[in-house]
């Protein structure tokens, strides 16, 4: 059984540490963006509780201009944050790619073609993480308690509903990860093996044709490819099932928070603006659990 290479681990850690300033900037931009995410809920709160009650059109105009300005600022920050992570991912790749290539070449010489292919795939996965939505979700997740706290301030029952919904969606996400981990790992391994087989066969196409081995090698590749498709389809079917349940639960929670908010508003325990704002914030609370 192969053991992790301490040198490789330290090099990866050093590469991540070298860009801690970039990660700090991403976290800072994420903090401001998430604070601005409260703006739509506050806007609806003011519109329903102040503008509709007073009928003041100037107040509505000023609130609308303010929210449009905040949306423009949020869009600009989102663009800047995206540019930062794109450049960060590229720089990390440039720092590690030659070392990973050398390690993959050494693994190939030692008779470990799977490890060689996996090393390059891992580098691609690291770059995709640094430039994809997963990194944004990582920095946005800590703001979940803030949105939840605001909902609790509206009314404890609304907060409990939001908390229960988030826990349920997190549980579904964990189940999806647990049941799909094994087939996805097998599919990835089979994909590497069959890809290497096909590459080797094509490289030696003349010799294979001369020896009449095309049929046997094609059958060998086809069996491996069938195994890959079977594992990939199994994981996809399981993911589709959990995703369907998660979507249904999320839509139900969005309706339930409006229904509960309307009931509390009828009882006079919250205002109509809190009902609408609570529904908007519910979407923000559930976002990390579905990312």
How are the elements arranged and paired?
Blueprint: H1 6-18, H2 20-36, H3 39-54, H4 57-109, H5 113-131, H6 133-140, H7 144-154, H8 156-203, H9 205-211, H10 214-266, H11 272-290
Based on helices, strands and strand pairing, what is the structural class?
Answer: mainly alpha
Assigned CATH superfamily of the largest domain = ABC transporter type 1, transmembrane domain
Provide the helix percentage: over 70%
Rounded radius of gyration (Å): 26 Å
Molecular shape: elongated
Query: What do we call the CATH topology of the largest domain?
Result: ABC transporter transmembrane region fold
Unreliable parts: none
Q: Write the H/E string, N to C.
A: HHHHHHHHHHH
Task: Indicate the CATH architecture of the largest domain.
Answer: Up-down Bundle
Give the number of domains.
2
Mean pLDDT: 83
Explain what you see:
It is built from eleven helices and no strands. The protein is mainly α. The two termini are 34 Å apart.
Brief account:
91% of the residues lie in helices and 0% in strands. With 291 residues, it is mostly helical.
Q: What attributes characterize this protein structure?
A:
291 residues; mainly alpha; ABC transporter transmembrane region fold; 11 helices; elongated
């Amino acid at each position: 059984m192969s053991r992790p290479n301490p040198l490789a681990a330290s090099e990866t850690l050093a590469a991540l540490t070298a860009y801690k300033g970039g990660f700090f900037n991403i976290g800072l931009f994420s903090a401001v963006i998430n604070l601005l995410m409260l703006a739509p809920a506050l806007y609806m709160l003011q519109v329903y509780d102040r503008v509709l009650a007073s009928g003041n059109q100037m107040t509505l105009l000023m609130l609308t201009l303010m929210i449009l300005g905040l949306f423009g600022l949020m869009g600009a920050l989102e663009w800047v944050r995206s540019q930062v992570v794109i450049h960060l991912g590229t720089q990390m790749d440039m720092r590690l790619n030659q070392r990973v290539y050398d390690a993959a070449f050494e693994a190939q010489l030692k008779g470990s073609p799977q490890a060689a292919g996996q090393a390059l795939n891992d580098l691609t996965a690291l770059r995709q993480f640094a430039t994809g939505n997963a990194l944004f979700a990582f920095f946005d997740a800590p703001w979940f308690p803030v949105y939840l706290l605001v909902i609790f301030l509206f009314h404890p029952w609304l907060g409990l509903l939001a908390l229960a919904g988030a826990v349920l969606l997190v549980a579904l996400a964990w189940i999806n990860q647990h049941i799909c981990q094994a087939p996805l790992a097998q599919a990835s391994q089979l994909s590497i093996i069959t890809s290497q087989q096909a590459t080797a066969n094509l490289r030696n196409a003349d010799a294979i044709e001369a020896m009449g081995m095309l049929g046997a090698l094609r059958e060998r590749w086809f069996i491996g490819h069938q195994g890959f498709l079977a594992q990939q389809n199994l994981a996809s079917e399981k993911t589709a099932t959990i995703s369907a349940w998660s979507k249904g639960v999320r839509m139900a929670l969005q309706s339930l928070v409006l229904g509960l908010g309307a009931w509390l508003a009828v009882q006079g325990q919250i205002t109509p603006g809190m009902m609408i704002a609570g529904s908007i914030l519910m979407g923000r609370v559930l976002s990390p659990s579905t990312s």
